[in-house]
Amino acid sequence: MSTLAVHDHGVVHHDHDQEHHHTDTFITKYVFSQDHKMIAKQFLITGITMAVIAMLLSILFRIQLAYPDKTFPLMETLLGRFAPNGRLDPEFYLSLVTIHGTIMVFFVLTAGLSGTFSNLLIPLQVGARDMASPFINMLSYWFFFTASVIMISSFFVQKGPAGAGWTIYPPLSALPKAMGGSGLGMTLWLISMVCFIASSLMGGINYVSTVLNMRTKGMDLWKMPLSVWAFFLTAILGVLSFPVLVAGVVLLIFDRSFGTSFYLSDIVLNGKIMPFEGGSPILFQHLFWFLGHPEVYIVIMPAMGISSEVIAVNSRKPIFGYHAMVYSLIGITTLSFIVWGHHMFVTGMNPFLGGVFMITTLIIAVPSAVKTFNWLATLWRGNIRFTPAMLFAIGLVSFFISGGLTGIFLGNAALDINLHDTYFVVAHFHLVMGSAAIFGMLAGVYHWFPKMFGRLMDEKLGYLHFWITFICAYLVFFPMHFMGLDGVPRRYYAMTEFPAFNRWLSVNTFITWAAITAAVAQIAFLYNFIHSIFWGKKSPQNPWNSTTLEWTAPVEHIHGNWPGEIPTVYRWPYDYSKPGHDTDFILQTTPFSETMSSNLPHDFEDNPVGLEQYNQWAKTQRSSEEVK
Amino acid sequence: MGFKDLINSKKILSLFAAFMLLGTNLLMAQSTATTIAGTDTPEQKADMWLGVGYYALLLLLGCVIVAIIGKILKIYDLTLQMQGRKGLNWNNIIGVICLIFLVAGLYGAYWSLTVQGSGILPEAASEHGAKIDFMFWVTSAITLFVFFITQILLFGFAFRYRGSEKRKGYYYPHNNTIEKLWTVIPAIVLTILVVFGFFTWRTVTNVDNKKGDINIDVTGHQFAWEIRYPGRDGKLGSVNYQLYTANNILGVNFKDRNSFDDQKADTLVLPVNRTIRINIHAQDVIHSFYMPHFRVQMNAVPGLPTFFKFKPTITTSEMRNRLDDPKFEYLLYCNKICGGGHYNMQKVVRVVTEAEYQDWIERQKPYLSDQLKKELKLADRGEQNKAGKNRIALNN
Asked: pLDDT higher for B349 or A18?
């Protein structure tokens, strides 16, 4: 009933748009646009820009790790006081690590990923004219943009950007004198994050309300593609957990600027007794990881949703265990709220609490395993079409397996004693949420590029991009496991001070060159992306022969998405290679009455009238066969 | 259409080349400018730009080669199509690459595990370390098995079921039995690991807050560790950060009698086979007390004293023999980001026999140094004065 009402509203809205179509100026169309498709593109391009910046930062500190004794005059030319005599300053090294992490986790894999694909796909895949609140959606982008600008601007302050690690644990982050990066750079970091969270909340509320209220006729929850399920649950996760980080950040701002002691106690810094009393640094860690852990699922779940979709489309097979996939997403969403303590096993938290968090953590591996097996089963006996998007989705599965398995070590509190904060952790999360999520994002870019820009990307360059990136990512992160198991701590500026680490120097050099190769391979992507926007081959309406709703919208973008009425949905989104049908896909908008030869009793589980008709039809078929 | 593309891309190529040339020129110009301006090592700078130019050209060359190969492939594909034959079958090509990747990747993983993996987990030199290592190897066996099986299936399926126009996918939306199976089996395996890990964790950490045979205070600050031994009475005196002075950097409270015989040391020397309780403190920011050889790690948190109790089992000299490395030392690192000097906050840890330990501890200086004694006497005398000052501060 409610869907119907919203549907009507949509039509009215559409007519309204038609009347005023000519009033679109450059500003309202490209800058302060309220159209979800344009906002998605804005998020994507900002996200890619931030990703390139963060990648270059990582190359800078990788060079330092590979050649700790060499000087690079170019670095001094580029970075000035941050690289005196051509060598990175140790504190600036930490700033690089910090900003690389912050940008990648929040600006690329949260805003760049969810912001792009939730905005683009939620209205198009559930059949809505636009987001529930286009204006708030626009604000969401501009808050994100402001946050990005503030974050980057911290490179231009005297003492450099924040340097306390992306987790900004106080007291290091709270005491401006503890390190250069804890001065103005940290203030900018905190302001940027507050803007970012505001953006994320506005986006999230929009995604949730759009999915709940604005689905087209016939689109019940169990007919939504897995991508929409993933975006929906991610948005819920973000809406519930991001405010806790704001609380944490605001208290930190108070400690830094107004002399409160929420996180600080018993501190003597550089021979000066500080007046703070009664606070607890552990409190910040709880607040941070209460967001921080759901955050890694905020990062990976949209990527999972995208690749579920891409794998089903390109295997020409229904996703295996659609319900199990949804329930495992719901399981991950719920469990992700009660596992944050596994980041804190050895931080001085009560060890009993550590034991409890260990149990919840290993439980969350079950839904993750189910998803992996379901992806494998989807590939089994498929008719796999290797588009670049498909390759990236396969790459995601591979990374998710490799990185997920090492999570079983780290989730085990006893093993974590020796592995905490070593390169093993770096390897683990770069595979499972870094590489996997970025591959999910790239899969999405290659797959929905025609939807965004009306043109196709070049496939061969896509293949080149995939294979180099994929292989290099493994070359970078696989050896890091062994460094961590040997006890090499992360965030070390140089390994030269420890003779025991000498044997890892050559490995470090190798990793750096693999990272540089991977970075160079991104040129193939950037060239392909930019070139295809303007000169790519024109895309047909449904280039991948996909069943979902977004491909029923015209290639030319119109405000309101569909000319005329929004299509009605009759079936689930995964009718690929259905036996008895002439093509290997059936659009969600095709009623069962048009596909009598391929209908199955299973299709009418919740539709007794349809089932009766189906039985009737089957009976007549049988009798006519008997007559023959 | 294809022709048009060709022209287009040529235009871009030439634009790009022009841009690069211009860019290099600009950079070169800049470099000469800086060489003139800068007084230090102009030759070095010139070398640097030569190096950068070399790599930029290499990159450009790489891009051109990729572009040429791309064009050749396109032309080959087009000629095949003109001759009425089918173009390149990319599904087959990528399928085969998947298979090659699988084989090469499996070999690479095997090589990495055996060569790089041979150096991991230095022999555990503590009692609980051996337990942790056993659990590590069990977990490794399980996860590696799953790793190899799933990766083989993933890329194996990608190759085996690569697309073809003659085939259709197999419509197989779900199978409840098999789904239940692969929910329950991981759940069981994980339950075993959880139970196993939970009890190990409890035995390592749940030490009823009892004192060890020897209690040692270790305090982290930017960027060093301070070590305090309890002295003859075996009891450490209390500390209060507000008592910090240049001579009493740990803020030991000398109103507490236990602190009189406390000793300070430069090396963390531990007797073998005795239970050691390390009380971990931090003065400024969070540090982490990390000794990988003993499988010991606990954060040092300002305002929240933590501890770790363990029993070393192998002496340094024994370890030197085993590793055939006469210079080997156990080390204590900082393993929580703590500022610019984080990467070099090490302390030598030496495990010795009981006799050697007794001999060593005798020779350690008391924490209550002569200077500190002088200072404390002064403080006693000046106490009234100080109180007066404090009141003024409060009034302000």
From this structure: B349
Residue at A418 is within a domain:
yes
Using DSSP bridges, classify how beta strands B276-282 and B214-221 pair: parallel, antiparallel or unpaired. parallel
Tens-digit pLDDT profile for residues B260-304: 889 999 999 999 999 999 999 999 999 999 999 999 999 999 999
Banded pLDDT at A479 (limits 50, 70, 90): very high
Does residue A544 sit within a domain?
no
What is the C-alpha to C-alpha distance for residues B182 and B189, in angstroms, rounded to an integer? 11
Q: Which of A94, A358, A370 sits opposite B337 (nearest CB)?
A: A94
Domain check: are A297 and A371 in the same one? yes
CB-based burial label for A336 (10 Å; 0-12, 13-18, 19+): buried
Of A493, A510, A538, which marks where a domain is finished?
Answer: A538
Q: Strand pairing of B224-229 and B306-310?
A: unpaired
**Among B190, B95, B186, B111, CA closest to B149:** B186
Residue A124 domain-assigned?
A: yes
Nearest CA in chain B to A583: B168
- Output B235-239 pairs: Cβ under 8 A, ≥24 positions apart: B236/B262, B236/B279, B237/B262, B239/B281
CATH code, A123: 1.20.210.10
* B393 CB within 8 Å of a chain A CB: no
**DSSP one-letter code for A504:** G
Distance (Å) from the C-alpha of residue B233 to the closest C-alpha of chain A?
27
Residue A379 distance to chain B (closest CA, Å): 6
Which residue, among B284, B291, B334, would best test binding to A if mutated, counting the most A CBs under 10 Å from its CB?
Answer: B284
Distance from CA of B355 to the nearest CA of A (A): 29
**What is the CATH number assigned to the segment(s) B214-380?**
2.60.40.420
Q: Percent of chain A scored above 90 by pLDDT? A: 77
- Point out which residues pair with B301 in neighbouring strands: B304
Enclosing domain of residue A105: 2-538
Q: In chain B, positions 155-174, which contact chain A (CB-CB < 8 Å)?
A: 155, 157-158, 161-164, 167-174
pTM: 0.90
Domain count, chain A: 2
* Interface contact A417-B194, CB threshold 8 A: no
Chain B residue closest to A362 (CA)?
Answer: B190
Among partner residues A72, A520, A584, which is closest to B59 by beta-carbon distance? A520
Contacts of A493 in chain B (CB under 8 A): 340, 342-343
For residue B359, how many other CB atoms are within 10 A of its CB? 11
Whether A171 sits inside 8 A of B285 (CB atoms) is: yes
Cis peptide before B223 (omega within 30 of 0): yes
CB proximity under 8 Å: B 188-247 to A: 190, 193-194, 197-198, 200-202, 204-206, 221-222, 241-242, 244, 246
pLDDT for B381 equals 57
What are the DSSP calls for A46-87, one per residue? HHHHHHHHHHHHHHHHHHHHH-TT---HHHHHHHGGGSGGGS
B residues 126-155 near A, CB within 8 Å?
A: 129, 131-132, 135-136, 139-140, 142-143, 146-147, 150-151, 153-155
- The tally of CA atoms less than 13 A away on the side-chain side of residue A309 is 35
**A482 and chain B: CB distance < 8 Å anywhere?**
yes
For residues A338 and A413, state if they share a domain.
yes
Whether omega for the bond prior to residue A554 falls within 30 degrees of 0, making it cis, is no
Q: Residue A622 falls within a domain, yes or no?
A: yes
Together in a domain, A579 and A481: no
Which amino acid is it at A186?
M
Helix (H) or strand (E) holding A443: helix A436-453
Mutate to test the interface with A, among B171, B307, B335 (most CBs of A within 10 A): B171
- Does residue B23 have a pLDDT over 60? no
